[in-house]
Specification:
Elements: H1 2-15, E1 19-28, E2 33-44, E3 50-51, H2 57-62, H3 66-84, E4 96-101, H4 103-106, H5 109-122, E5 129-134, H6 142-155, E6 158-164, H7 171-176, E7 181-184, H8 186-189, H9 196-211, E8 215-219, H10 224-231, E9 238-241, H11 251-254
Parallel strand pairs: 2-4, 4-5, 5-6, 6-7, 7-8, 8-9
Antiparallel strand pairs: 1-2, 2-3
Length: 257
Protein backbone atom coordinates (compact mmCIF):
# COMPACT_ATOMS: atom_id res chain seq x y z
CA UNK A 1 0.00 0.00 0.00
CA UNK A 2 2.83 2.39 0.84
CA UNK A 3 4.41 1.88 -2.62
CA UNK A 4 1.12 2.53 -4.37
CA UNK A 5 0.69 5.74 -2.37
CA UNK A 6 4.23 6.90 -3.12
CA UNK A 7 3.88 6.20 -6.85
CA UNK A 8 0.65 8.18 -6.88
CA UNK A 9 2.44 11.09 -5.15
CA UNK A 10 5.26 11.03 -7.72
CA UNK A 11 2.76 11.05 -10.60
CA UNK A 12 0.91 13.97 -8.99
CA UNK A 13 4.22 15.84 -8.69
CA UNK A 14 4.80 15.34 -12.41
CA UNK A 15 1.25 16.29 -13.37
CA UNK A 16 1.17 19.40 -11.14
CA UNK A 17 4.67 20.42 -12.19
CA UNK A 18 6.03 20.23 -8.67
CA UNK A 19 9.09 18.75 -10.34
CA UNK A 20 11.07 21.54 -11.98
CA UNK A 21 14.14 21.65 -14.19
CA UNK A 22 17.09 23.96 -13.89
CA UNK A 23 19.76 24.18 -16.57
CA UNK A 24 23.48 24.61 -15.91
CA UNK A 25 25.41 25.92 -18.93
CA UNK A 26 28.38 24.04 -20.39
CA UNK A 27 31.01 26.36 -21.87
CA UNK A 28 33.86 26.36 -24.31
CA UNK A 29 36.55 27.78 -21.98
CA UNK A 30 38.52 29.26 -24.87
CA UNK A 31 35.80 31.71 -25.98
CA UNK A 32 33.21 31.33 -23.17
CA UNK A 33 30.54 30.33 -25.67
CA UNK A 34 27.77 28.05 -24.37
CA UNK A 35 27.77 24.66 -26.10
CA UNK A 36 25.15 22.93 -23.97
CA UNK A 37 23.16 22.73 -20.76
CA UNK A 38 22.73 19.97 -18.20
CA UNK A 39 19.15 19.65 -16.97
CA UNK A 40 18.88 19.20 -13.21
CA UNK A 41 15.73 17.95 -11.49
CA UNK A 42 14.34 19.84 -8.50
CA UNK A 43 11.25 19.39 -6.33
CA UNK A 44 9.08 22.28 -5.17
CA UNK A 45 7.72 21.38 -1.73
CA UNK A 46 4.50 22.59 -0.10
CA UNK A 47 6.31 25.62 1.29
CA UNK A 48 7.53 26.54 -2.22
CA UNK A 49 11.09 25.64 -1.30
CA UNK A 50 13.38 24.01 -3.89
CA UNK A 51 14.54 20.54 -2.84
CA UNK A 52 17.69 19.04 -4.45
CA UNK A 53 17.53 15.51 -5.94
CA UNK A 54 19.71 14.07 -3.18
CA UNK A 55 16.67 14.42 -0.90
CA UNK A 56 14.04 12.80 -3.12
CA UNK A 57 15.61 10.77 -5.96
CA UNK A 58 15.88 7.67 -3.74
CA UNK A 59 12.09 7.66 -3.48
CA UNK A 60 11.79 7.58 -7.27
CA UNK A 61 14.39 4.82 -7.57
CA UNK A 62 13.02 2.62 -4.77
CA UNK A 63 9.53 2.72 -6.28
CA UNK A 64 10.69 1.86 -9.81
CA UNK A 65 9.55 5.21 -11.16
CA UNK A 66 12.75 6.23 -12.95
CA UNK A 67 11.29 5.06 -16.27
CA UNK A 68 8.29 7.38 -16.02
CA UNK A 69 10.20 10.30 -14.54
CA UNK A 70 12.97 10.04 -17.16
CA UNK A 71 10.44 10.17 -19.99
CA UNK A 72 8.72 13.12 -18.28
CA UNK A 73 12.09 14.92 -18.12
CA UNK A 74 12.79 14.10 -21.78
CA UNK A 75 9.42 15.55 -22.83
CA UNK A 76 10.04 18.68 -20.77
CA UNK A 77 13.59 19.16 -22.11
CA UNK A 78 12.39 18.79 -25.71
CA UNK A 79 9.73 21.43 -25.06
CA UNK A 80 12.16 23.75 -23.26
CA UNK A 81 14.75 23.40 -26.05
CA UNK A 82 12.33 25.11 -28.43
CA UNK A 83 12.20 28.12 -26.09
CA UNK A 84 15.85 28.22 -25.04
CA UNK A 85 17.10 28.22 -28.65
CA UNK A 86 15.74 31.76 -29.02
CA UNK A 87 17.84 33.10 -26.10
CA UNK A 88 20.60 35.49 -27.14
CA UNK A 89 23.43 33.35 -25.70
CA UNK A 90 22.65 30.42 -28.04
CA UNK A 91 20.55 31.94 -30.80
CA UNK A 92 21.49 30.55 -34.23
CA UNK A 93 24.17 28.37 -32.61
CA UNK A 94 24.46 24.61 -32.13
CA UNK A 95 23.92 23.47 -28.55
CA UNK A 96 22.53 20.47 -26.71
CA UNK A 97 20.65 19.79 -23.50
CA UNK A 98 21.58 16.73 -21.49
CA UNK A 99 19.49 14.63 -19.15
CA UNK A 100 20.69 12.05 -16.64
CA UNK A 101 19.74 8.45 -17.38
CA UNK A 102 20.34 5.36 -15.25
CA UNK A 103 21.55 2.02 -16.58
CA UNK A 104 18.09 0.59 -15.90
CA UNK A 105 16.75 2.76 -18.70
CA UNK A 106 19.67 1.99 -21.02
CA UNK A 107 19.03 -1.73 -20.51
CA UNK A 108 15.30 -1.37 -21.17
CA UNK A 109 14.37 -1.87 -24.85
CA UNK A 110 10.97 -0.29 -24.25
CA UNK A 111 12.58 2.86 -22.87
CA UNK A 112 14.90 3.06 -25.89
CA UNK A 113 11.91 2.71 -28.23
CA UNK A 114 9.87 5.33 -26.35
CA UNK A 115 12.74 7.82 -26.11
CA UNK A 116 13.63 7.39 -29.80
CA UNK A 117 10.03 7.91 -30.88
CA UNK A 118 9.67 11.06 -28.79
CA UNK A 119 12.84 12.55 -30.21
CA UNK A 120 11.76 11.72 -33.78
CA UNK A 121 8.33 13.25 -33.17
CA UNK A 122 9.91 16.45 -31.80
CA UNK A 123 11.64 17.26 -35.14
CA UNK A 124 14.58 18.71 -33.18
CA UNK A 125 17.03 16.74 -35.26
CA UNK A 126 20.21 14.90 -34.20
CA UNK A 127 22.63 15.88 -31.44
CA UNK A 128 20.26 18.27 -29.68
CA UNK A 129 19.51 16.00 -26.71
CA UNK A 130 22.29 14.23 -24.81
CA UNK A 131 21.77 11.26 -22.52
CA UNK A 132 24.24 11.24 -19.63
CA UNK A 133 24.71 7.77 -18.20
CA UNK A 134 26.31 7.25 -14.85
CA UNK A 135 29.54 5.34 -15.24
CA UNK A 136 28.73 2.36 -13.00
CA UNK A 137 29.10 -0.17 -15.82
CA UNK A 138 30.65 -3.50 -14.98
CA UNK A 139 32.74 -5.14 -17.68
CA UNK A 140 30.28 -8.00 -18.23
CA UNK A 141 27.55 -5.49 -19.12
CA UNK A 142 29.58 -3.58 -21.68
CA UNK A 143 28.45 -5.44 -24.80
CA UNK A 144 24.75 -5.04 -24.01
CA UNK A 145 25.18 -1.38 -23.07
CA UNK A 146 27.21 -0.73 -26.24
CA UNK A 147 24.48 -2.22 -28.44
CA UNK A 148 21.71 -0.18 -26.82
CA UNK A 149 23.76 3.02 -26.97
CA UNK A 150 24.27 2.40 -30.69
CA UNK A 151 20.49 2.35 -31.17
CA UNK A 152 20.13 5.62 -29.24
CA UNK A 153 22.86 7.31 -31.27
CA UNK A 154 21.20 6.15 -34.48
CA UNK A 155 17.98 7.72 -33.20
CA UNK A 156 19.79 11.08 -32.90
CA UNK A 157 20.86 11.27 -29.26
CA UNK A 158 24.28 12.38 -28.10
CA UNK A 159 25.69 10.06 -25.43
CA UNK A 160 27.83 11.07 -22.46
CA UNK A 161 29.46 9.08 -19.69
CA UNK A 162 28.86 10.98 -16.46
CA UNK A 163 31.14 11.06 -13.40
CA UNK A 164 34.05 9.41 -15.20
CA UNK A 165 36.79 8.49 -12.74
CA UNK A 166 34.56 7.05 -10.02
CA UNK A 167 33.00 3.67 -9.24
CA UNK A 168 33.93 1.00 -11.84
CA UNK A 169 36.26 3.33 -13.68
CA UNK A 170 38.30 1.64 -16.39
CA UNK A 171 39.60 2.39 -19.86
CA UNK A 172 37.15 -0.10 -21.42
CA UNK A 173 34.55 2.66 -21.19
CA UNK A 174 36.69 5.02 -23.24
CA UNK A 175 37.81 2.40 -25.73
CA UNK A 176 34.68 0.31 -26.28
CA UNK A 177 31.64 2.53 -25.78
CA UNK A 178 30.65 4.71 -28.71
CA UNK A 179 30.00 7.87 -26.73
CA UNK A 180 30.31 11.51 -27.74
CA UNK A 181 31.29 12.99 -24.40
CA UNK A 182 33.25 12.04 -21.29
CA UNK A 183 32.31 14.04 -18.19
CA UNK A 184 35.11 13.93 -15.64
CA UNK A 185 34.06 13.87 -12.00
CA UNK A 186 34.66 17.04 -10.00
CA UNK A 187 36.97 15.08 -7.66
CA UNK A 188 39.64 15.24 -10.37
CA UNK A 189 38.89 18.88 -11.21
CA UNK A 190 38.99 20.33 -7.69
CA UNK A 191 42.47 21.70 -7.10
CA UNK A 192 43.67 20.93 -10.63
CA UNK A 193 45.59 24.22 -10.55
CA UNK A 194 47.92 22.97 -7.82
CA UNK A 195 47.63 19.15 -7.81
CA UNK A 196 50.08 17.65 -10.32
CA UNK A 197 48.57 14.16 -10.07
CA UNK A 198 45.05 15.36 -10.91
CA UNK A 199 46.48 17.45 -13.72
CA UNK A 200 48.25 14.41 -15.17
CA UNK A 201 45.12 12.23 -14.87
CA UNK A 202 43.04 14.73 -16.80
CA UNK A 203 45.75 15.20 -19.42
CA UNK A 204 45.98 11.40 -19.84
CA UNK A 205 42.22 10.98 -20.31
CA UNK A 206 42.22 14.04 -22.54
CA UNK A 207 44.81 12.53 -24.89
CA UNK A 208 42.85 9.28 -25.21
CA UNK A 209 39.59 11.16 -25.79
CA UNK A 210 41.29 13.28 -28.45
CA UNK A 211 42.43 10.16 -30.32
CA UNK A 212 38.88 8.77 -30.10
CA UNK A 213 37.43 12.16 -31.12
CA UNK A 214 35.37 12.50 -27.93
CA UNK A 215 34.60 15.76 -26.16
CA UNK A 216 35.52 16.13 -22.50
CA UNK A 217 33.49 18.12 -19.99
CA UNK A 218 35.24 19.00 -16.74
CA UNK A 219 32.65 19.41 -14.01
CA UNK A 220 32.78 21.54 -10.87
CA UNK A 221 34.95 24.50 -11.89
CA UNK A 222 34.65 26.90 -8.97
CA UNK A 223 37.43 29.46 -9.22
CA UNK A 224 39.56 31.41 -11.67
CA UNK A 225 42.73 29.49 -10.90
CA UNK A 226 41.12 26.18 -11.91
CA UNK A 227 39.62 27.81 -15.00
CA UNK A 228 43.03 29.15 -16.09
CA UNK A 229 44.70 25.76 -15.58
CA UNK A 230 42.12 24.18 -17.87
CA UNK A 231 42.49 26.89 -20.53
CA UNK A 232 46.19 26.05 -20.68
CA UNK A 233 45.51 22.43 -21.62
CA UNK A 234 46.28 21.62 -25.25
CA UNK A 235 42.97 20.12 -26.30
CA UNK A 236 40.27 21.99 -28.22
CA UNK A 237 37.70 19.33 -27.25
CA UNK A 238 37.72 20.25 -23.53
CA UNK A 239 34.61 22.00 -22.19
CA UNK A 240 33.70 23.16 -18.69
CA UNK A 241 30.78 23.34 -16.28
CA UNK A 242 30.62 24.81 -12.81
CA UNK A 243 29.65 27.68 -10.54
CA UNK A 244 32.64 29.77 -11.67
CA UNK A 245 30.93 30.06 -15.04
CA UNK A 246 27.27 29.83 -14.05
CA UNK A 247 24.98 28.35 -11.43
CA UNK A 248 22.00 26.24 -12.57
CA UNK A 249 19.28 28.47 -14.01
CA UNK A 250 15.60 28.28 -14.71
CA UNK A 251 14.92 28.60 -18.44
CA UNK A 252 13.46 32.08 -17.92
CA UNK A 253 16.80 33.27 -16.54
CA UNK A 254 18.86 31.99 -19.49
CA UNK A 255 17.66 35.04 -21.39
CA UNK A 256 19.84 37.22 -19.14
CA UNK A 257 23.21 35.52 -19.67
Amino acid sequence: FKKVKTKKKIRINMRNENYLLQYQPIYNPRNRRIVGFESLLRLLDEEKKLIPPSEFIYEIEENNMLYEVSLWILDRVIKDYEEIKHCYCVKDKDFYISINISLNEIADKEFIREASERLAKSKLGPNKICLEIIERIKVENLSKVAKNLMHLKQAGFKIAIDDFGTEYSNLDLLLNLDTNIIKIDKYFVEGIDCDKIKNEVINFVSRIAEVKNKDIVLVGIENESEANAIKNMKNDLIYVQGYYYSKPLFKEDITFI
